[in-house]
Structures are given as structure tokens and as C-alpha cells.
Amino acid sequence: MAYQESSAAWLEFALKMAGEAVNQVGKTSQKAGAQVVETRDSTTGSYRYWDTETLRIDKDIEGYYIEQLAEHGIDAFVLSEEVGSLKIEPRTAPEIALDRPIYFVSDPFDGSLLYKRNIPAFWYSALAIYTRPEKPEFAEPLAAVVINLASRLTHYCDAKQSFEGTLDSWGRIDKPMAIKPNSTKELSDSFLETYLMKPHYMYPTAEQFKFLFNKVKFILPNGGPCGFCDVASGRIDVYFAYKQPHTDIYPGIAIAEKAGCAISTFEGQPVKFGDDVERRFNIICTANKTLHEKVLKLLQDHKITDTHGL
């Protein structure tokens, strides 16, 4: 079958869903949204064993995304934080521009613990639509959206370019602007981002990578999909994605890639798509190749591998 080459329809579809995610947050009281509706296995080594609670807001947004895929007849294989892996059963025939098999990757609400305490910072919803070839490693992004659910600032990409703007409730972007990373070349001038908010991450990360963190100018202790977007938009120079989950990687990495960032594993290898939703990753995303090589050299000197800590 010959598929439509344009990704415009996929981006429009993704932006409309992200707009509704903001609406879900707005119309749900924080007390109701913060209710724990599911718990995960807390056994050490199991999936997200250090973070066992699923909030209502997580499930509501994820459920909306899944419902939209089915309602629009999308042949989708979902890879999402709460549901894990799920094959969508389409309820109708899709419009021509959306008639192809896809992977739908989502972190419906990144920042749940901050939301639970009503701290309106680092609340994001992230989603990405990838092609679904016979071999997953050959999948390519068609569209991706990472939206700040408090401010509506949105980073997004189609198959060619990345942008930012403010998203309204109907999925329309106000004043879209193409984005590009910084020209920072020295680690001593660099702003680095890495996830440090949970003790599970903070202590081992700070201790093991002190040799890198000591060399930068500033550290933002956040991560997830917005870490890639922060580099893509020039706000951050290095995103150090250590042991990050599948659903936090693929929405953001698409936007960073289309913005022209340098991206690799800790050993300098390309990051390929995968459909194992429980897999974790060690990835570096930097503003340019010069800075990237300096980070890689430090990791090599300290014998850090792609599988370090995983």
C-alpha cells in the first residue's frame, strides 16, 4: 500500500489531542485529579517500582488519547506510561491522510507527584506518532508534541522541522516559531539538564557523574520529554538522560532531532526506535556536535557505557 507522504495531518491530529489534554487539567479539580486510581508492583527491579501510584489525571488523559485513536480509525500500536502496550481496535475507516499503521508513544502526564502536591511546575503531556514498519528500528517520526500543561507553551515537530508556540484548546498554535539549539561550545558555559527530583535518581546520578556535572555552569534538575525540547529551543545546552523510560524518550527526541540537536547513546551510537515500553535509556542530547564530543570524551575517559546503571 502507498501511504501519504505528508505528515501535516498527523501533526494536526496530535495538536488537537494535546489541546484537549490541557482542557482535561483545567476542568478537573486538583483534588479529584490527584486521586490514586491504580498502584504498580513495588518489588525492586519491577517497572517503576520506586513510583507505584497512578493518578486519575494520568488515566484520564491517556484514556482520551486512546479513545481518539479508536474513534478516528487509526491503526495504532500504543506505547504509553500507564497502559503499557496496547493494540488499538479502530471503530471506523480513517481519513485518507491518516490511513497507515503507526506507533503512538505517550507520557500522558509527566509531573504527577508535583501535581499531587499542587505545585504547578514541570507538568507536561507528551505524545509522538511514528511510522510502523515491519522492523521497529526503522520507524521514523511523523509528528510529536510536548505541551506544558500549566502555561500551554508547546514544542512540536512534523517530519521535517521543529517549532514552539502557545496551544489553544482547539489545537491551534498562536505565533508558531521555528526553533534551533544554542551555539554553546564549552562545558564551562553550558546549562545541563538531568533528572534529580526523586532520591532514586538524585544520589546515584550526582555521585556517578560528578566528573561531568562539576564542569558545567548550571544544572536544571528536570528531565523527561521536555529535557529534549529545552535543548531544541536553546534554553539548555546538554540534556543528560540517565536511565530514562521509553515514553519519556521518543516524543522529545523527535523534536530535538528535527531541530538539529546532536543525539546519541552514552557510547556515541545512534538512538533507534524500539517497541519495548519497559526499556530504559542512557542518552545525551546536546546543542551541537562540538559540545557533544566533549561530553562523550568525558564518559569514555570514565568508562561509562550505554548500559551503565540499567
UniProtKB/TrEMBL annotation:
Q: What's any GO biological process attached to this entry?
A: signal transduction
Superkingdom of the source species: Bacteria
A molecular function GO annotation = metal ion binding
InterPro entries found in the cross-reference section? Inositol_monophosphatase-like
Instruction: Give the keywords, sorted.
Output: Magnesium, Metal-binding
Pfam annotation, one family: Inositol_P
Cofactor names from the entry are: Mg(2+)
Query: What SUPFAM superfamilies would the database entry show?
Result: Carbohydrate phosphatase
- Report residues binding Mg(2+): 81, 107, 110, 248
Q: Which PANTHER family match?
A: INOSITOL MONOPHOSPHATASE (PTHR20854), INOSITOL-1-MONOPHOSPHATASE-RELATED (PTHR20854:SF4)
Q: Please state what the protein is called.
A: Inositol monophosphatase
Classification of source organism: Bacteria, Candidatus Glassiibacteriota
